[in-house]
Amino acid sequence: MIKWVLLLLFVSVMVYSGYTSMRKTCTVSDFFLGGRTVGPWLSAFAYGTTYFSAVIFIGYAGKVGWGFGLSDLWIVIGNTFLGSLLAWWLLARRTRQMTARLNAMTMPEFLEARYDSRGMKIFAALVIFIFLVPYSAGVYMGLSYLFEQVLGIPYLYATLAMCLLTGVYLVMGGYRAVALTDFIQGTVMIFGVFMLLYYVVGSPQVGGLASGIHKLSQINPQLVTPVGPPGLLSLAGLVILTSLGVFGLPQMVQKFYAIKDEKSIRPAMLVSSFFALVVTFGAYFTGSLGRLFFETMPLDAAGKPNPDLIMPQIINTTLPETGVAIILLLVLSASMSTLASLVLVSSSSVAIDLLKALKPGLAARRGVPLMRLFCVIFIGLSLAMALKKPTIILSLMAMSWGTISGAFLAPYVLGLFWKGVTRAGAWAGAITGLSISIVFSLYYKLDAGVIPLVGSVSMLVPLVVVPLVSLITKPFPERHLNRVFGTPGISGKSVVLDQKEAYSTGR
Question: What is the CATH number of domain 2-393?
């Protein structure tokens, strides 16, 4: 009853948030960015709860911890200092300034204005909508596995319920509804992580911190070394993918667009970094102890080893009833915010970016209804993939992150800071990253041991390709660069006018 009561309370808060926000959501900017009025605390929690979802607690923590042992804590360091602290410090202010100047609400709009290319906007919109579906499906799978193990709800019904909840609360209120609930969700996550660590470390299987480390070393001495059994290359791939990858993910960059002002960036940076440290340590440290609870990897209903069941079974067998209920809300909180951001970004790629490029009149007249429609379509596609259970969650997330960040990271980050990036250089980087991720992911058949490394390579190679191609191709005229980088006397409005001129010339 405790689990059901807390779950019902959580759902009620989310639906109420969507309902109250619906009355304040009149424009596309309101729906997608909350009107660019989100303060530092809400921005920080929105960033953290979008970053970490059921994928980390159910997919990554169990699978990676089982293979790497305590060396998976390198991912904690990477996510905290690279994926959170450095991302805010390096990107937030420049992104906020440039997107406001260019009147850009989305990653595709930014790329179009920065590189004066309508084709890049269409390309980016399609990549986002297509390749965020597997990530969203992975989040639904993680949630459904947890509900199946903890509440006994069949996987099918759990997945359908999560999709319905996401649709109702998000379609009504948009980003404003997400921001209102993120602080509560983030607080639940932090409290839940401390509770999880307390019960897991104190369980008979672990017997305290020192005892748990000793027991791991008896199973395999490599599980307590700086680099676990799979090796340095595999570990580096995971750290780079999950840390550097956020620099090119539209759902993460969106938080920099929406923040209220530049003064809010520093407190948001500190809060989001602390949040990342607590959440990732709780997840990956617990996952590293998985072998103390199971002699062999847990089996699914078909009798096959399934690493996605490690964390749900640890939670269900170790924590008391109230603790299980809190952890259930922890994972649900993380996942709902992540799903909301994924759905918003994906639907905007069609309703804001693709339709505005192809049918600007329709997008202007029916912006918010179209956003809501494509939210529903995206949720439906994610549901269809989740119900097929195509592969383990780790592979879904890694492939999605690697493909999207591989396509956007170099053109976005280098384009923020270096005037020398050309249109040809940006295109070369985007296509290189996309191609590496897709070709090698299919070649290795979404092998969970290889996909994170493939994703990392797809992000790193374009960082070399973009400068090389830019140095040998035609640079942008000084007038365009002055508008993009904010030379005094030239306003962002002229950029918008030039975009309309670009449409007429087919650029």
Answer: 1.20.1730.10
